[in-house]
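Internal tracking record. Fields below are filled automatically when a chain is submitted to the structure queue. Please do not edit lines marked as system-generated. If the sequence contains nonstandard residues, flag them in the REMARKS field before resubmitting.
Queue: standard
Priority: normal
Entity type: single polypeptide chain
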Amino acid sequence: MAAVNDVLSEVIDVVMALRQAHHAVPETHELHAEVDLLISDARTWAELLMEADTARGVSALDYMPSVAGRQRPHLWHGQVSDDEVRDVVTGQLDRLAGHLTAALPEPEDDRARDLLERISAELQSHLDALRKP
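SYSTEM-GENERATED OUTPUT FOLLOWS
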């Protein structure tokens, strides 16, 4: 489950970055809607990953800090463009994709592997949407 917990830790970091992106992008912009969808999906991913740990009798938060216990990143200062936000968010998601790629061959549990594959597919969908011109 170490690989799954690495993914969970990265998802928590992504949620923190997305919260900042949510505040940086005006509500009237298209990017704001995508960030909202990402926040919702990332929270779901975190919940599902924690449930997978719990099902195996482990508390993931015994091995990593929760959102409250993490240093909040300062990704932007002042006004930023949608492109700047998009670049940072895409970078965060690419890093998560890397963790998923590394974790996929690890789990012997089919349910954990299926969960990682689901997250990977949903993540790719968001990356495709963010990279559209």
